[in-house]
Specification:
Blueprint: H1 2-13, E1 24-26, E2 29-33, H2 40-49, E3 57-58, H3 64-77, E4 81-86, E5 95-96, E6 123-128, E7 134-139, E8 146-152
Parallel strand pairs: 4-8
Antiparallel strand pairs: 1-2, 2-8, 3-8, 4-5, 4-6, 6-7
The structure holds calcium ion (CA) (2 copies).
One calcium ion binds near residues 60, 62 and 150.
Amino acid sequence: MIFILMIGLLVVSKARGNCPDGFVQFRESCYHFSHSRETWMGAQVACKEAFFPTKANLVKIDDQAENQFLFRQAQATRTEYWIGASDLQVKGVYRWLNSGQEVGTYFNFWIYSGNPSGGPEHCMEISLNTNNVPFWNDQTCTDFQHFICETAAK
Ligand SMILES: [Ca+2]
Ligand SMILES: [Ca+2]
């Protein structure tokens, strides 16, 4: 666990030259791990407006490496985070906010407790089980949660 924590901190403290204040870099993107909590929609508005002139969006997970990077941060901070997908348009079909691309067609981490569990839950988060193991979860969109914003690195 300590080893995982150290790796997480190492990744956070490295390479912030190409990112705005408050963001950390991983490959071609910059990420902000929020200190405040918002609803899922409030989080997207915050990503777009809080860092003016930088415009960010709720994070879109493009591949396994990016997913692992985000999972490590969630583990290191023991925090659950909103990410940028929902099934608000078509129930049961999770799509990323801007691209409209479907979630998890070539990899996915819907691995615990039968998620997406549906019902009143339509927004996607990185959740943690009781052993601090991250997984994707659908959650009630009006819950107030931490969130991750992403913008392209310069
Ligand atoms: Ca991304
Ligand atoms: Ca769920």
